[in-house]
Each structure stands twice: as C-alpha cells, then as structure tokens.
Amino acid sequence: MDHRSSGRKLERNRNQRRALVKSLVESLVTHGRIRTTEARAKEIKSRIDRILTLAKRGVEAPDRKVASLRLLKKRVSEVTLGYLSDTDFLKKFSSRTSGFTRVVKLPPRKSDGARVAVLEFVD
C-alpha cells in the first residue's frame, strides 16, 4: 500500500526524475510554454508554482532575498535564476498568489498515442 505518497514516478528512478523535472521547469521559464505529456505537465505545474512563489517572495521582501535565492539555486540553474530574479518577468504575476500556469490538453500523439498537453504561463 502506498498511503501518503504524492507525486508521479514518471517511470524513472529518483535521480532521473529530478533531472527531468529540473529541465522541464527551466525550459518553461526560458521559453514561456512547453509541449509535453499530460502527466509531466501536471507534475511540473505544482513545482513551478512553488518556485515562482519563492522568486516573488525574494523580490517583494528585500530582507528575504538572500534566503529565497539560496533556495532557488538548489532547484534551478544560474541561467533560469537570472530569468526568475528579473522584475519584468515577475511583474506578470504580481496580482496572483498562485495558479501561474495552465495545462491545455491536445489530441493524442500519432506515434504512440500518448496524451499530450501544452504547459504555459497565464498572462
């Protein structure tokens, strides 16, 4: 029984799963939208919300900036951190407290029939 277990395994072991999630989050931040499977998109949605909340907290409260940057460095690369610390990027989400992304479902892929979705930021 897997009581109290959360998150999807995405058919990968822990290190591969962490790398996949990190790369998907970084792609979403740099490109603004990504096309991936529904399961991956749903898994990334909650992670990106936490990361954006951390980034907003660092910009809004200057006394917390160092602490939030330290936490963000563990989760994203330096390039992505540059995007997240940019005030123009975070201005889009100043009125929101959560729900920064949306998952738009697309027709299944022809090759393998996988459910596909687009994950994008809400404007």
Question: What is the helical fraction, as a range of percent?
Answer: 40-55%
Give the N-terminus to C-terminus distance in angstroms: 41 Å
Strand order of the largest sheet: 1-3-2
Tell me, briefly, the overall form.
globular
Strand composition percent:
5-15%
CATH 2nd-level architecture of the domain at 36-121: Alpha-Beta Complex
Classified by CATH, the class of the domain at 36-121 is Alpha Beta
Query: Segments where pLDDT lies below 50 for 5+ residues?
Result: none
Give the tally of β-strands.
Answer: 3
Number of helices: 5
* Element string (H = helix, E = strand): HEHHHHEE
Average pLDDT, rounded to a whole number, is 90
Round the Cα radius of gyration to an integer and report it. 15 Å
Please describe the biggest sheet, giving its number of strands, its sense, and whether it closes into a barrel.
3 strands, antiparallel
CATH superfamily of the domain at 36-121: Ribosomal protein L17
CATH topology of the domain at 36-121: 50s Ribosomal Protein L17, Chain: A
Report the structural category. Answer: alpha+beta
